Amino acid sequence: MTAVLTTAVLAASLAACADDRPSAADAAKELAAGLSELDVGGSAFTVVKAEDVTTDLGTITEALAPLKPTVAVGGVESTGEDTATATLDYVWDVDASDEDWTYSTSVELSREEDEWQAEWDPSIFVPELRVDEHLAREEIPADRGDITGANGEVLVTQRTVLRVGIDKTKAPEEGHDAAARALASLVEIDPASYAEQVSTAGAEAFVEAIVLREDAPLAADRAAIDAIPGAVALQDFRELAPTRSFARELLGTVGEPTAELIEQSGGKLEAGDITGLSGLQRQHNDLLAGTPGVMISAVLGDGTTLTPRPLFAKSPVNGKPLATTLDAKLQTLAENTLAEEPSASSIVAIRPSTGEVLTAANGPGSEGLPTALLGQYPPGSTFKIATTLALLRKGLTPESPTECPAELTVDGRSFNNASTYPEQFTGTIPLLQSFAQSCNTGFISNRDQVSQQELASAAADLGIGVEASIGTPAFFGVVPTEAEGTAHAASMIGQGEILVSPLALATMAASVGKGARVTPTVLAGGQDDASPSDSAPSASSSASPSSGPSEDASKSTNAPAKPSKLTAEEAATLRTLMRAVVTEGGAGMLAGVPGDPVHAKTGTAEFGSETPPRTHAWIVALQGDLAVAVFVEEGELGSTSGGPLMEAFLRGAGS
User: Percent of the chain at pLDDT above 90?
Assistant: First the structure.
């Protein structure tokens, strides 16, 4: 019993003598937490005050804000009764990649009375950092990937440009306003607005007025620029297509992001970055842009007198090229063909055997809108190709008689033929002539033989209203599955609520040429990684010219697409009818085009409430392995407005 009592008393005495003061490990943990927040107010230091250390940390990291390190205690080693050394492990998440800036430092700790204190020195925050140094972060841009076209031809790449503007250091202050206005007049921008920009810019600023391609006349002869005090032309590089207009709506542009794009990016973009702003450049920005590198350096003073000392560097990962199907020669030809058309217009060409989109050209009258791919317009008589397919499936043949009166009334609405319709082809005529001469009343008189659902199905078998992932937003058409009376009658001739884009009609023509439904694409094969970027607009969110309500899309035949029932025999018959349009009908101007025989169908679609109504002009054509759709928004007839454009394009394509 005596032994037991002695042991109990001894244990109680040892417990009373135990050191319950804060440990070095506690102090190290508190310091690490403070360094992680760049606020060490909870720690004590041997010589300086905690608030002074926090101020130092703010100065050191100011250029990295809002970046902060994650700091953890790697270990604490006792070096004496009241001294210890702590290891601090740092992790800086410098960018969105998995590669971080990591390192370890050590800090000496000592105990004064009941408090552990750290010896502050910038080197415990960053190895070998001096008291007069701070951190700087530099982003190393990646080389942007090119956009290529057919046969690998480079379409968009880095090209030399001149940034023209006023360098305020090269002209006296009292002359800045006059110089700005003179330069603005020279480069044809608003003088008052540019003079205001120059006035409000910093005293040593360069204020850009315009960026010129290297081959621009003003860039080639800079005498006029040099004559303006303070005006300079700085050489730079930009991602550009061969010409300013070349497939601009499709390829898109590159530049600094807008405030809207920055907000939509979820932190990926910030002011001053270079990113895709529109078109394929925006939709596939993640692929094209690559990943920028980063360098963190120790900088002395303002960094202008001594070379920064690199601490961490990560090399950029260059962007990958985006391969498209565009044919540079045909795209240029199409744009030149449309150059004098004042209204919105487009030419879309597809290779039927592959579905490759060779041109997606918009005329200057489209004013930057992507008419070729996203326009929404009634197709008029070009839709008779789909109507005829539905009639063939009801047993009609090119020789079948059709009734083609000069006027036909359906439920009180009168339907007529075009004012130029040849009188000798009225009355009872074969389907071939109804098609070749484009007899509206001849097709409408057969409305009871084809239901609206059958009409929509025939159109879908030719690709109209069938969605496809082509690498960029596109409108494939709307064909209501339900329509009666005058609405169904109008559908027979491509009016009513039917809407298409030039792409959709080129797809229809290509399907006739191939003998099977064609799925178009703008991206070359084998690009599984070329999926649209997160910030890319969808087809439904993209602005598009439209002559019909967007809610009509709910009536389309595009979700999901059923397998096409188009047969080779049906396609051959349609080609026979389309050839008759060239040899006997309204597309006679195409008969003399060199090369393979041309097959075509013209179309005119009325719109608006004016008397007489305004009209869209269409023409589609097949020649060999080429399917083309030409569209003019403010045209006359398909034959008179679209025909000459089609002839010019086909002749140029064959040369």
Answer: 76
